[in-house]
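[PROTEIN RECORD]
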Amino acid sequence: MKRIYAIVRKDLIIELRSKEIISTTLLFSLLVLVIFNFTFEPGSQASRELAPGILWVAFSFAGILGLNRSFIYEKDQECLQGILLTPVDRGSLYLGKFFGNIIFLGIVELITLPLFALLFNMEIINVLPSLLLIIFLGTVGFSSVGTLFSAISINTRAREVMLPILLFPISVPVILSSVKATGAILRGSDLSDISSWLKLLAGYDVIFSVLSYLVFEYVIEE
């Protein structure tokens, strides 16, 4: 546990100094919302119907930018091999990066959500706990496989392109479930009405988090 905490702490300190990941992903997320906001009339039926998809487009593409930089500091500073040579379980490295990515993406999502509500004229106060639950489950699933694929793509020349190619096909269940659940909640449904989507998200989170943890040791060695 101390090893995982040390990795997360290291990434947080680096991010506080550089502000590279959060500022980049937040700016991209806001740009997506603003561009789509200009496309539809605020408060229109089309805007309300497409709003959940637009929100998760912003989250997903911003997440790609953040995940792309999970291992880039260690790679560019040529210290990744040094970390791998230390007597630390490879799974601890994965979990440290995994939790760090959840924190970074969570910060961006918490800032983006109220701006989304403002731009698309959405009332989210009454359904905020349900929305946060959906966002959390979606972020965990997206980050679990994203952290693994980030470790794979970091060793390729086209790493910026390779990650979305690998990640988006396998994260379709997460994005689809999150969009459907978010849309239902924004329309006034209860958590019981979206229990099937929540179960799918939770199941995906558990299965792919465990698989990624188990596979990471062999991926990072390559």
